[in-house]
Design goal:
This protein has 158 residues and is of the alpha/beta class. 39% of the residues lie in helices and 26% in strands.
């Protein structure tokens, strides 16, 4: 069983989701199943089947989160000395040399990655291209959209 790196914030989000699924969602589904059951014939009862399917998805997600938490290797970059190197959990400030756009990404684990939130998976093309590089480095990264050229303007461990 491989350990999965995760940030403190990522672990907190997973634990919050687990509490929600167990303490709020699970009882709601049980109530919906009981309500649907009271309508009689279960073979042709769409509400019952929908509630049972939702229950299956909910329990599956609970098991998945428990597994992730069990395998979690929490990395707290705020406790590490910042030598300007891009590492898991660091926030990287970049300038796209092709168009001058300034962007920042936080390098995170698989279950935290969310491009809209500027959280990128450390094993993604950009994540792999940045890890190990240093502040002020020029980086060429092959992405699905083609080659991109960046300058690492800053690296923060926050």
């Amino acid at each position: 069983m491989d350990k999965e790196p995760i940030t403190l914030n990522g672990l907190k989000k997973l634990k919050d989701e687990l509490v929600f699924l167990k303490e709020k969602k699970r009882p709601e589904i049980v109530t919906a199943i009981a309500e649907a059951r009271s309508h009689g014939d279960l073979k042709e009862n769409a509400e019952y089947h929908a509630a049972k399917e939702e229950q299956s998805h909910n329990e599956g997600r609970i098991n998945e989160i428990n597994d992730i938490i069990t395998r979690a290797n929490v990395i707290d970059v705020t406790k590490l000395s910042n030598d300007g190197k891009v590492i898991f959990g660091s926030t990287v400030f970049l300038e796209n040399l092709d168009n001058g756009e300034k962007i920042s990404y936080k390098i995170v684990g698989k279950d935290e990655a969310d491009l809209k939130e500027k959280l990128i998976y450390f094993q993604s093309p950009i994540g792999r291209g940045l890890i190990g590089k240093k502040k002020n480095s020029l980086v060429e990264i092959n992405t699905p959209a083609g080659v991109k050229n960046f300058e690492i303007k800053d690296v923060k461990y926050v």
